[in-house]
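Incident log, support desk, overnight shift.

02:14 A customer reports that sequence design results differ from what the structure should imply. Their input is reproduced verbatim below. On-call engineer (initials T.W.) acknowledged and began investigating.
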């Protein structure tokens, strides 16, 4: 298994110069470097998700669980409609949405590559309406659609090894190649579960999230209220803020982009 992975990683690394810079984020059009195949990231996400759900305790609040699933489904449908309408239907092969509410007091939510989204029921102490829940779910869906995990893994590969790894790999120094293989595997594990803080990704996910919200029929103005509550520190918000830092800049950026989000959504 590990051997196959390393061989595949080697192929990926050898292709670095060819595929570097060829990705573009849906909706924003931002160019991104993606060095790992979508399939690889999807499989890693799925494995982590299964492991996580084996240990997790699903919320006993049936009403809230079904709200998470139904709001998630509306947003996912809108997102898929957008992707299909923009010639990006092929992206759906690596997106299989699941929305779960897990019994945990933390005010948090996360998304694994491929669209596996988990909300802790502590979050519902802050997100108190369907629209506010849609703010969070739209944001998490956006992380998956924008392939932020793949981008972070790719950035780590470049930061750690740069172009040097190519020469090493080509000269068949297996020790170095193995080190990269296991390191990248480890990075995937770290990065997939809780996307580490990246302001650029957070703002991008916010923007895409409000577009998807509008498309799904929710009022995207709720995002301003939700993030204001979060930044005011209502409830135990520190966990969520560690992965989703909220401050005035974030809120003003959201406000600035609301009209644009609404006008894009009107076309769908
Ligand atoms: Zn985020």
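02:41 Re-run completed on a clean worker. Output:
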């Amino acid at each position: 298994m590990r051997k196959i992975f390393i061989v595949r990683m080697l192929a990926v690394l050898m292709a670095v110069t060819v595929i570097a810079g060829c990705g573009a984020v849906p909706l924003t059009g931002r160019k991104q470097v993606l060095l790992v195949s979508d399939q690889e990231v999807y499989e890693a996400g799925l494995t982590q998700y299964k492991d996580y759900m084996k240990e997790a305790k699903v919320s006993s609040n049936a009403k809230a669980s079904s709200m998470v699933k139904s709001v998630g489904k509306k947003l996912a449908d809108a997102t898929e409609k957008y992707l299909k309408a923009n010639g990006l239907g092929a992206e759906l092969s690596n997106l299989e949405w699941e929305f779960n509410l897990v019994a945990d007091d933390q005010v948090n939510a996360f998304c694994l590559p491929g669209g596996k989204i988990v909300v802790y029921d502590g979050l519902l102490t802050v997100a108190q309406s369907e629209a506010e829940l849609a703010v969070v779910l739209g944001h998490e869906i956006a992380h998956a659609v924008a392939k932020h995990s793949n981008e972070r893994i790719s950035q780590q590969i470049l930061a750690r090894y740069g172009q040097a790894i190519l020469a090493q790999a080509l000269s068949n120094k297996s020790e170095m190649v193995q080190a990269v293989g296991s390191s990248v595997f480890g990075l995937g594990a770290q990065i997939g579960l809780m996307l580490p803080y990246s302001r650029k990704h957070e703002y991008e996910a916010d923007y895409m999230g409000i577009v998807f919200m509008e498309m799904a029929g929710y009022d995207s103005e709720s995002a301003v209220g939700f993030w204001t509550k979060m930044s005011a520190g209502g409830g135990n918000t520190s966990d969520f803020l560690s992965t989703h830092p909220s401050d005035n800049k974030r809120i003003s950026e959201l406000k600035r982009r609301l009209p644009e989000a609404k006008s894009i959504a009107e076309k769908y």
